[in-house]
Automatic annotation (TrEMBL):
This is Phosphotransferase enzyme family protein. PROSITE patterns: PROTEIN_KINASE_DOM. Coiled coil: none annotated. Residues 130-444 form the Protein kinase domain. Gene3D superfamilies: Phosphorylase Kinase, domain 1, Transferase(Phosphotransferase) domain 1. Belongs to the protein kinase superfamily. ADCK protein kinase family. It comes from Thermoflexibacter ruber. InterPro entries: ABC1_dom, ADCK3_dom, Atypical_kinase_ADCK, Kinase-like_dom_sf, Prot_kinase_dom. Keywords: ATP-binding, Nucleotide-binding, Transferase. GO terms for molecular function: ATP binding; protein kinase activity.
Amino acid sequence: MADEIKDPNLKVQSSIPTSKVERATKFVKTGVKVGANYVKHYAQKVVNPNLSKEDLDKANAEDIYGALSELKGSALKVAQMMSMDKNLLPQAYTDKFTMAQYSAPPLSYPLVVKTFQTYFGKSPTEIFDTFTKEAVNAASIGQVHKASKGEKYFAVKVQYPGVAESISSDLKMVKPFAKQILGLQEKDLQMYMGEVEQMLIAETDYELELKRGVEISQACAHLPNIDFPQYYPEYSSKRILTMDWLTGQHLNEFLATNPSQEVRNKIGQSLWDFYDYQMHELLSVHADPHPGNFLMRADGTMGIIDFGCVKVIPLEYYRVHFKVINPQIIDDDKMMLDAFYELGFIYEDDTEHEKELFTNIFKDMIRLTVSPFRQETFDFGNNEYFKMLYDFGEKLAKTPELKNSTKPRGSKEALYLNRTYFGLYSMLNQLKANIRTHTSWKAR
């Protein structure tokens, strides 16, 4: 794990707003700031018609991230999720929200001690020989401290106060920001927010994370070139999670060392194999594939951490979702149409025009996104492929029939699966990995 928070400008927080009133007030104040930014921008635009929207985006991103990073929890987690898609947000938002992955402002040590007293009746230094007073990493739901006992080193994750209790109310308050930034319809946002809420509730349960971390790491122990931390129930609770300290670098730091193509491919292959095995053998997958959760090393090995966000795939939905991997489906119109009905891409009561339009849209989407599965090897360093993905996303965003559809197109079950593959593709692209894209998918 990274040995220290790298940004010296990050302010340590001595408190977090925990009541609904306090948190709502922070959102309202931020909304006022954003409104003032718009007024200021358009006033300046009267004087200078050539003024770009980038300055407005930068000011809004700064204010929104500032508020979310103080609130922590689900509000900041949504920002982290959105930052993973480089095509989803204006660049200013992506740049700022990416900090939520592992560089949010940390919590002060007295609050960490208070959490330990609540769950163990002891301070950290009464349990461990050493315990860093400052967090070595701080993200949306909790922060990590480095501890030791004898010759052994531990990563101790401490959850921010009030995070679990404020999930539902936070998501209601963050919804207007999400609608404005993403341009989504209310019906689509509502469907996805329900899935996000369920996943976030699970993510704040560190006892569940420990259980899932043990299960998945044991099931994947045979996969080459990856390792997982051991977990320690005796030093863990519902809001504190203790595991082995793993060494390695986050993706950007790792790439800055200029690793060879061989090492990039080796790590890329491990990432692909790890996710493919979970998806198709376990039907349970580490659904938080942002760079903060992977520790890469010069010898091509990698440590994998953080099993708080795990998507369990219902068998019936799995059967439908992965039909599109079947190579025969592209040339079999009936098979593809049946799958589209099951996936909720098209409906029986759609007009003929809608059926034709959405069938063609989703056919193109399947051809493009599933392309790596249909080849023996795939070069994720091919930026032209990713440009095609992004251009297709832009086209979808500007398709009025899709934007104004009165029905959601797709299942909420797909939200975290799509997010997982997008995060995987994105990391493989940054690695410029050229790998074997075999899959253990099989019709069930």
